[in-house]
Amino acid sequence: MVYSKYTIREQNEATILNYIIKNKEISRAKLAEISSLNKASVSSIVKKLIDEQFILETKIGESSESGGRKPILLTFNQTTALLIGIDLGDNYIDALLSYIDGTEITRIQLKNSTIHAKNVETIIHTIITECEKQAPQTPHGIVGLTIGIHGQVFKEMIRFTPYYDLENINLAKRLNDRYEFPVYLENEANLSALGEYTFSSDYESLVTISLHRGIGAGIVKQGKLTIGYQGNAGEIGHTILIPNGRQCPCGNKGCLEQYCSMKIICDEIKEKKKWHDFNMDRLVQAYHDNDALLVSQIEKYAELLAIGINNIIAINAPQLVIFNSSLTQALPEMVALIKKQLTNRFSKDVVIMNSATTWNPAIYGALAYSAQRFLNIKQLKLIDWK
Fold first, then answer.
1. Residue 2 — pLDDT band, cuts 50, 70, 90?
2. Where in this chain does the entry annotate a coiled-coil region (predicted)?
3. 34, 153, 273, 356: which is deepest, by most CB within 10 A?
4. Are residues 230 and 89 in the same domain?
5. CA-CA distance, 145 to 368, in Å (whole number)?
């Protein structure tokens, strides 16, 4: 690979580093054993990783059964570098500055923020400036920014965004021209899946369902994101639910997200309940009070969502399906209702659950996306570190 200060140079270095991350504490001798590299190569790589402050010598381990000198154990330097993740929603922005292991340093949340082509760079620059102010001193500084886009992204280009107008600007190039560290763009649902895979799940194959103004699915198979041709994989919200149904911005009629996205759910419940404003706490309370109309609506949305989820399970055969939604987090009973609708044999052994990340999984996916590229580790797992 092409070397830059924002990547680990050699594949062997990345391999040894990955073994250290996976094992938390490990000796040089054990690294030589499991990597199939000779001891001299391992010692040379370890010295380089120590010199560049990617790893640390941590403590004296136990000697082997045959005796001999006790080994010095090695561990990953969790504070070797910093990452920034941003989720650009259509009416909110979440951002996080973290150490490379995902440990939070600074969290930024902007609500009711309208994103469009004329203000997006200014908003991102403001977030980066704040992160730089809060950034502690580390050996490598900020080594990557990944931005989650609610729309179709392919090779750092925004190809289609149904709810904001960013597809006509080369945002990645503009930002990369402006900042020293690399800037990446990726679909928000894809990042959600990567975040769950990297920070919260032991499974190798999973699907996340992002239920926001639109509906998207992120797909990880054997530890790798499934992007599809031109970034089209996982567009579950644009599968047809009702033939010749409601018009969708994508050009189809009857798309799933025109019947059970968060916007549709909020708007329809607000109208049917004659609420002036939609309030999640009010919805949850009404559901728990067995409000007949609201319970009926929630059951309807669960049934519709289950149709889309059934399809994606049948096609992708994941071990795990995870919901990334403020609604299912506030009302976990909805996950159970959806689960109840998944009665075919393909869904029988699939685990269905809410997100297990401590905050927005797309943010953690953004951190993971940059970390993978900086460390040159494609199937990076940081479950036990954060």
1. very low
2. none
3. 153
4. no
5. 10
Inform me whether the pLDDT recorded for 7 exceeds 80. Answer: no
pTM, entire model: 0.91
pLDDT digits (tens, 9 = 90+) for 91-134: 889 999 999 999 999 999 998 788 888 999 999 999 999 999 99
pLDDT digits (tens, 9 = 90+) for 299-320: 999 999 999 999 999 999 999 9
Residue showing tokens 């000697």: 63
pLDDT score of 61: 60
Same-domain status, 339 and 237: yes
For residue 62, give its domain range.
11-76
Q: Is residue 5 part of a domain?
A: no
Residue 99 in any domain: the answer is yes
How many domains, in total, are found in the chain? Answer: 3
Considering the chain, what percentage of its residues have pLDDT values greater than 90? 75
